[in-house]
Description:
This protein folds into three domains: about 5-175, Rossmann fold (3-Layer(aba) Sandwich), CATH 3.40.50; about 185-340, 3-Layer(aba) Sandwich (Rossmann fold), CATH 3.40.50; about 355-525, 3-Layer(aba) Sandwich (Rossmann fold). Helix 7 (about 135-145) links the parallel strand 5 and strand 6. The chain is built from 22 helices and 18 strands. The protein is α/β, with parallel strands linked by helices. Helix 1 (about 5-15) runs parallel beside helix 7 and helix 15 runs parallel beside helix 16 (about 380-390). It binds ligand TZD and calcium ion (CA). Calcium ion binds near residues 429, 430, 457 and 459.
Amino acid sequence: xxxxxxxxxxxxxxxxxxxxxxxxxxxxxxxxxxxxxxxxxxxxxxxxxxxxxxxxxxxxxxxxxxxxxxxxxxxxxxxxxxxxxxxxxxxxxxxxxxxxxxxxxxxxxxxxxxxxxxxxxxxxxxxxxxxxxxxxxxxxxxxxxxxxxxxxxxxxxxxxxxxxxxxxxxxxxxxxxxxxxxxxxxxxxxxxxxxxxxxxxxxxxxxxxxxxxxxxxxxxxxxxxxxxxxxxxxxxxxxxxxxxxxxxxxxxxxxxxxxxxxxxxxxxxxxxxxxxxxxxxxxxxxxxxxxxxxxxxxxxxxxxxxxxxxxxxxxxxxxxxxxxxxxxxxxxxxxxxxxxxxxxxxxxxxxxxxxxxxxxxxxxxxxxxxxxxxxxxxxxxxxxxxxxxxxxxxxxxxxxxxxxxxxxxxxxxxxxxxxxxxxxxxxxxxxxxxxxxxxxxxxxxxxxxxxxxxxxxxxxxxxxxxxxxxxxxxxxxxxxxxxxxxxxxxxxxxxxxxxxxxxxxxxxxxxxxxxxxxxxxxxxxxxx
Length: 528
Ligand code: TZD
Ligand code: CA
């Protein structure tokens, strides 16, 4: 008779969840006992890194990823990064070991008291099975829920004395279940959208991360071209849903109410696909929209539609909707004038001993192959990044979706594990890097060939910018001088180089792309 552990591994195998990202403790060892040979365990040295790696892996593969954390403390360490998984809708199946069932009530050491409440409201669903018999079914529920629309992270706490118990015979049904969800918008909905789109004279598209998540980038291009509509990426982007080289690409919408309104001036219809309306950041209150404009939002996420402060909502899978629209929208023969409206790129000047961030991103773009994947967590330089990076293929960009730092550096490891055939470049700020630095060890240990470029300007640049916006004057806690990333890299056994000028950076990148191992390039920059 199979044990609960064996039944669980069979279930995970059936769902393709054969990579376990984790950091173990005493509560987890009985789950990991007799670890099957066809499974991989990827050890992260901090749970934030484990969650971020799994998140990068899930987003890049387009499938659920499995995480195993240690009790409440390990879960807590993972929760900062988990704030991103909510908004990137990453289907993470996060498990944690619980103390022995009969002892949790006494609150013995490492008991995860009220475990199922711990990760709320970040997880879509969380549970602790009521008995050992129900562990496999609870995990099956978690796996399905994580992936069913709208996808998102789930959490299951399992007492460790459950794993060696016999699994009920009926458990075998679980591995045979085949679940499909509705994958097409209705004809009525499509027709309504079509009529409104075709009636518009000057439509504009705003695309969000779910377009890339559903690999609908090409369909979005076809819809934009047929409508003659230019394309913005929705504010605070976590992914790149549209080729940045397309003449109709306008860039990333600024993340404040007033700038968005200004960007929409001159248009009569905004079609938002696969994004919330909107993920504003800087508070610049005012009217949301110019007069007389109509906003249509297509999303597969009921919450995203329900919470929008304006616009009409269409609840439907974004990939299928864009593909269907691409088939039916008539070509107007009208060229999007976007290219003309995009300001010319002006590169900031380097200084002696410190590059402008523009130099870093432009030099990477010149050295990188066309199918390069970027993971970016360099906060004050986002605009510079988007001006210079070239991203053409789906799945070319990942960034922390809620702004929770500690995602980028480890997520790059997860993305690279998912895409051995593409090269991942992680552009990470010196401040951000420290929240996930231990992932360097995982990259070295498992030979994951990420090129880590640390932009070292010695400060929390984005916060410096906010002090101006909020008019606070100088505050404490803004500078982080004196950190050597080459020495940190050496400690984690990742080869590294420190560069402070464009020639040395270009040489370091050429070497890095020619090689097949992880490399860290510490790029000395200044805050602009
Ligand atoms: N802690 C966490 C987990 N997430 C955060 N977003 C912050 C703190 C606050 N924070 C920001 O929102 S941006 C930022 C911090 C500390 C500075 C990041 O500095 P950096 O990049 O060096 O990575 P820049 O380009 O210098 O801003
Ligand atoms: Ca910085």
